[in-house]
Amino acid sequence: MSTPGVPGVSGVPDAPAAPERRVRRPRPLPMFQKGARQALENPQLRRNLYKATHTIRNKRAAVVGEVPDWQELREAGRAIKERTLRHLDTYLQELEASVQRAGGRVHWARDAEEANTIIARIVAEHGAREVIKVKSLTTDEIRLNEALAAQGIDAIETDLAELIIQLAGERSSHILVPAIHKNRSEIRELFLHELIEHDLVPGPRELLGTGVDELSDEPRALTTVARAYLRNKFLSAQVAISGANFAVAESGTVCVVESEGNGRMCLTLPQVLISVMGIEKVIPTWQDLEVFLQLLPRSSTGERMNPYTSLWTGVSQGDGPREFHLVLLDNGRTQVLADTVGRQALNCIRCSACLNICPVYERTGGHAYASVYPGPIGAILTPQLLGVENASSLPYASSLCGACYEVCPVKINIPEVLIYLRGQVVQHKQESALGRLSPEALAMKVMAQLFSSQMQYEEAQQLARLGQLPFVHRGAITRLPGPLGGWSAMRDLSPVPTQSFRGWWRSRQAARRKIEQPVQEEQP
Amino acid sequence: MSASDTARETILQRIRAALRDVPAGEQPEEVVVARDYRHNGSAAREEVVEQFIERVADYKVIVQRVEESALPQAIAEACAARGVQYLVVPADLPASWLPPHVELLPDANTLGYEQLDKSDGVLTGCALAIAQTGTIVLNGGPSQGRRAITLLPDYHLCVVFENQIVDLVPEALANLRDAVLAERRPITFISGPSATSDIELNRVEGVHGPRTLQVLVVRNA
Question: Is residue B29 assigned to a domain?
Fold first, then answer.
């Protein structure tokens, strides 16, 4: 049996993972430019995205503006992350000891497959066929739901947006509001066909405030349907799965930040709680939370504070789950850590401010990035997690305007890392035989040759002036031939002018000499 | 060696290999963290209370100031206005708060989820509150009960004493430190009723948590 979404991996999921394992090779992602083109052709999507990104952007600016010590908080956030990453092994071991002391169990997972195996085993041990989930990017990253489905376990997403895209069988397009690409009438249709017609919404129709036929597309009515559908799931589930926003090494406290209360339901009601976190989510001390609990909500939803923040430390007698498991996930993170320039991508607290401010994301949306992590942060994180050769177009999915760096609450210098990764993409291409023979590499080689000598350069200019004639339309080259076409697909090229500066200078000098010569001759 | 131990050792080794640029003797404290942000507010007491009230109200919370002597009456009126019949209360709630003419469901970790779900509301105190963000903090301490009781009922009536309100987030975290490190109590920050903006970014108050939150701010006698 093979686990869906994890190509080339076979395994008996309920057996313990063998110590020596084959490393999973990620598949190259589709080109960003291709996905972007598709997205740009969808006017509804562009309208939804424009409205969403601009709304959150403005809300963020307002609540950040009222904090007089915002820059000091950013700097502290950045520095705490730097301290943590430079001593990550120490803090992870401290976290492990604290969680165990507080009655929790800690598991380590080298990659997605190992994490999924651990989680599926815990769920199976409790005989559960259904688990409820808090929105978690990390579980999206490891494709947990598919792995559980392969074991006959249903994973029910309880965040409204995650529920919407799960019912629609789609992928998230924004890390904070995953269903940002869907409008209210699409969601109404979905709820009608997937929930109401299947009698999955319990209770009298009055509960909805409306009958099936006249289910309105008002967000309030749609939200009521989701509440009614999920309430019984919350009350009956045995096992819940969450991610983690932060985990405090000194106390073993795990933190989940949310809005709807679905998180609190999952974290409080079932007997068993499993939380999956990337190893970079650890923070050293309880005090450090005072920085991140200020930075995250304002940067993320543009609120002074999100409605609910849950902080729990192991298991508590008579309050909440009786069993708590914390899964610490690597899955490429140590690879990112090894790069001293790219390492800062691990500072990310997943607020999505860089998505909302980005002029590229604002137009293409998240699907074009073909990754769980879209937008500017995804453009630097994904190639590092998967290897630049598998996401070589993502470092180019940016105009390098720098807005993402400015809004980043933990000061990740995204443009710096983008440029650095572009360098790596080129280097990687040059190292491969196919890359050396690529039209781009050959063209660059020829260019380098031409630029090294004035005479050759001018001859080439002359040649280009003639050669470009068939391609110049109204003073611009809009489509280059053959393999050069990729360059002109998104932008126009100025033609080589009929006269170069050097040419103009020479003719000017020659004309001057003609005028000045007779005057000079008259002098004695 | 089990698979788990192997995974642990492998990950720790990978981390150490990745951090070759970090000098061997470097201590975590040597990585400077400048905490130049505000740790304590400078506003006067009355201003802090007013800001809390203003910011709680921003979340569409019903908020009202009362004298301590008038608290029982305010609670009774709130329950009556809401039409509460079955009210969940933590078992240790002060007797003087308990409203008359209401069926009380005292919880000492004894009520089932179904009972909580079918109740009309819950009445609690809090551990502290934060003015800067309009936040109520529960830590399972006196008059607060376990987490489930403030989650399943659709209406949460919360009593906040003025002297429980701190100005800034760092003050709140500092106050909660012992409850976490010494007692490992679960903590919940509540900033308004549950909400979502998932459909076209329209904010809807009330998804899974209590759809109505009401706060009584009590002037200490």
Answer: no
**How many other CB atoms sit within 10 Å of the CB of residue A281?**
25
Tens of pLDDT, residues B121-140: 999 999 999 999 999 999 99
**What are the pLDDT digits (tens) for B160-202?**
999 999 999 999 999 999 999 999 999 999 999 998 888 877 8
Instruction: Chain B: give the shortest CA distance to residue A20, in Å.
Output: 9
- Contact list in B for residue A48 (CB cut-off 8 A) is 200
Domains of chain A: 29-66+343-429 (1.10.1060), 67-331 (3.40.50.10420), 468-513 (no CATH)
* Alpha-helical regions (H) of A130-256: 137-141, 144-150, 160-168, 184-191, 219-236
Specify the CATH number for the domain of residue B131: 3.40.50.10420
Q: For chain B, how many structural domains are there in total? A: 1
ipTM of the modeled complex? 0.96
For chain A, what percent of residues have pLDDT higher than 90?
63
B187/A310 CB distance under 8 A: yes
* Structural domain includes residue B17: no
Q: Which residue does chain A place closest to B140, by CA atoms?
A: A319
CB proximity A393 to B under 8 Å: no
8 A C-beta contact, residue A496 and residue A457: no
- Alpha-helix runs per DSSP H in A244-308: 262-268, 289-300
Of B140, B201, B204, the CB nearest to A51: B201
Identify the domain containing residue B215 by its residue range: 42-219
